[in-house]
Specification:
About 6% of the residues have low confidence. The chain starts with a helix and ends in a 6-residue tail after the last helix. By secondary structure, it is an alpha+beta fold. Helix 1 packs parallel to helix 8, helix 5 crosses helix 7 and helix 5 crosses helix 8. The chain has eight helices and seven strands, in the order H-E-E-H-E-E-H-E-E-E-H-H-H-H-H. Strand 3 and strand 4 form a beta hairpin. The chain has a five-stranded antiparallel β-sheet with strand order 2-1-7-6-5, sandwiched between helices. It has a two-stranded antiparallel sheet with strand order 3-4. It folds into two domains: 137 residues, Beta-Lactamase; 73 residues, Arc Repressor Mutant, subunit A.
Length: 221
Amino acid sequence: MAFADFAWRASLRGHASFALETAMGPQAASDADAPGAALDALAHGVLIVNAEARIVFANRAATAMLTRANGLRSDSAALSACDAGDTQRLRTLIARAANADARARLGGAMLIRRPAPEEALQTLISPLRARSTAMLIAIDPQAARRGVETRLIALFGLTPAEARVACEVGNGLNPKDVAEALRILPSTVRTHLHHVFEKTATHRQADLMWLIAQLAIARSD
């Protein structure tokens, strides 16, 4: 896993947990009934589910995903994937994370396939402390990139081309790989990257990775 992926996911998991606790007060992780509007501020889908994969709460982004039924859907109030094999694995991970025996609870992660050309949803499942529930975070990588590019342009004055390069470098690619991915010359990548570092006041790829991870978390609409 690239550092950017790790930073993005770890940061998102932390923000979601913090939002859950802030929204729900002192009994945050114990009560999964009213996570509140704080989770709606997150750009990625966040669901609270019980051990049977029945949805207790879905934030705004997750509700949109379920409505589109593109990767994840609610089947008779239970969460499922479009692919039967993915559904079985997803429900196994949820059951493990929401195990009634707190000592047996384990988190997990999986890719949920979608019809081409859509990229798979990146899905993280984490145990909550009580009531046999788990938190599921679903990341649409394509939507995430579009959101980050828009924020880079708005916040730092990057051009669209610079924003695309920033996102690729922020996801751990080197200039040669970025050039191949975007079908541009390596020298063009280096020029764009110089402007990106200058405009964002970052100096290393690791700094840019962390910036990208932070910008990917919150909604801007």
